[in-house]
Amino acid sequence: MTREADRQIVVTSEDLERLQALVESARQRRRWEDLHLRALAQELDAADVVEPADVPADVVTMRSRVRVLDMTSGQESTYTICYPSEANIDAGKLSVLAPIGTALLGYREGDVIEWPVPGGVRVLKIVELLHQPEAEARPRRVKES
């Protein structure tokens, strides 16, 4: 896993609480040896935690829908980052415990990420953040005429 040296992912306080519980639950089921689960725990430990109302609108959070480009193959894919119980790859719902799900969480539109997957290392660019729940929940400001 390579991230820019001084970069931290951004995670909302609510997502942090749920994700830490998910990591602990998996740890108790002896799945802790999985590399991607350890990677998620490391990312959460180093994350810049913010309140949902304060998360920047270009950050991939839980239940965000994002379009990514595989920099090696040139293939674009669209995923919604979700919890394992909601995962359905045919519907584009990617578990945060899947290596790519872990890789995308907390990064911003335009970022390029190198992340280990079972077949090697993937280099992914976040092309567009199509939906972020926190941004959708914010009240919209009306311009005064």
Summarize the structure.
The chain has helices at 13-28, 35-46, 99-104, 133-137, and strands at 10-12, 48-50, 65-70, 76-82, 93-95, 112-117, 120-131. The protein has 145 residues and is α/β, with parallel strands linked by helices. Helix 1 (13-28) packs antiparallel against helix 2 (35-46).
Task: Note down, in words, how this protein is organized.
This protein is of the alpha/beta class and 145 residues long. Helices cover 27% and strands 28% of the residues. The protein contains 4 helices and 7 strands; from the N terminus they run βααββββαββα. The protein has helices spanning 13-28, 35-46, 99-104, 133-137; strands at 10-12, 48-50, 65-70, 76-82, 93-95, 112-117, 120-131. The strands form 2 sheets. It has a 5-stranded mixed sheet. Strand 6 and strand 7 form a beta hairpin. The protein is globular and about 40 Å long.
